[in-house]
Amino acid sequence: MLIQNVTLPGREGSVDLRISDACFTHIEPNLTAEPGEETWDAEGRLALPPFVESHIHLDSVLTAGEPKWNMSGTLFEGIERWSERKKTLSVEDVKTRVRRVARDQASFGVQYVRTHVDVTDPELTALRALLELRDELADLITLQIVAFPQEGIDSFPNGRDLMVKAADMGVDAIGAIPHFEFTREYSVDSLNFACELARDRGLLMDVHCDEIDDEASRGLETLATRALEFGMGEKVTASHTTAMHSYNNAYFVRLLRLLTMSGINFVSNPMVNTHLQGRMDTYPKRRGVTRVKELTEAGINVSFGTDDIRDPWNPLGTGNLRDVVLNGLYVTQMMGYPQIAESYNFVTHNAARTLHLDNYGIEVGNPARFIVLDAPNWVEALNFNAPVVRSYRDGKLVAKTEPATREVYWG
């Protein structure tokens, strides 16, 4: 297969992509089609590696309003609503909803997804469903599953046993939720347990860490310290860290040294974090989004995630990561032109690093996984919400959208 005339970020002019045996074999201008070779002219459109969803809860998608709406818009009411809804879960219920969202994600160019799955359920219903879907959806999307203790590890009956059982069932990563534990001691103990479990099983880690407006929530320092001591840094992710928005600067500067030394990753979910945080404030209201700009400038890896799609924590959402990036740039005030032009990295290369992916990117020898957007560059793609006109996975077309035709009648 030969894809002609694509634009790649940071490269002058257009190039052609030759694919053989599901891999990129040539990336250079003016390649000549071989006899019988399938070709497509991209006409100067932008090609990127596939989008990577680095933080979502697929088990809860499409459950907004079931059985009740989250009227306060808070994280904690969302947990209450989900606690009620998960009592009615079945494997087929979860699989039906996730299949719908996975198709949407594929149409938006997403090929890799890290999903957190609630394991504070004695039956582990959602986890069983997602483990089955990981295999079922493998030709469309690579699913990475995090054992997520939504209602706590030490604050939930048999929480530790359920985490161990989830690890035995074959999850990819271990999670925790220190800010939701009953006490500071439980918070630290649960993090120690989760880090040791991940280390001993050779698993990745992704912790819902300090997702609260309380500047006294300091789970992050414990997580980063354990990651440093255990030599796990690049395998560890701190998600949300919204309390960092409220940390005093003297503490943050001290903490930044530890974060840099630890080598851990961060995920911000700017749309949902902005929606959920600051709910206890009158005015001024905090944005409640972690310090993406400062972390990035310190050389720390940060990616963006969707978090929730039409569930108890977010009544809206489609899974289109373009929306997440656009919102993230505004709310973090990263609106300098170079910041905008390079922001695709939050949902491509940075996110791939978060997921610890190998052989990711448009490079000779890598699997031919890439997307083509209906725009000549990323800034234009953001401005005009350019669709992903084609998505290829191992050289096979998995999703296609026709470019929009705009007609205006005036005068």
Care to give the gist of this entry?
The chain is 33% helix and 21% strand. It has helices spanning 75-85, 91-107, 125-136, 159-169, 184-201, 219-230, 249-262, 270-276, 292-297, 321-331, 337-341, 349-354, 378-383; strands at 2-7, 14-20, 23-28, 39-48, 51-56, 110-118, 142-148, 173-174, 204-209, 236-240, 265-268, 302-304, 370-373, 388-393, 396-400.
Task: Give a description of the structure.
Keywords: Hydrolase. One of its GO terms (molecular function) is cytosine deaminase activity. This is Cytosine deaminase. By secondary structure, this protein is of the alpha/beta class. Helix content is 33%, strand content 21%. It contains 13 helices and 15 strands. Strand 6, helix 3 and strand 7 form a beta-alpha-beta unit. The protein is globular. The mean pLDDT is 97.
Low-confidence stretches: none
The averaged pLDDT comes out at: 97
How would a textbook summarize the main sheet? 8 strands, parallel
Give helix and strand order, one letter per element, not per position: EEEEEHHEHEHEHEHEHEHHEHHHEHEE
**Total count of strands:** 15
Q: Can you tell me the overall shape?
A: globular
| Tally of helical runs | 13
Work out the strand percent: 15-25%
Q: What distance separates the N and C termini?
A: 46 Å
Strand order of the largest sheet: 5-6-7-8-9-10-11-12
Structural class: alpha/beta
Kindly provide the radius of gyration, computed on alpha-carbon positions and rounded to a whole number of angstroms. 21 Å
Roughly how much helix do the residues carry, as a percent range? 25-40%
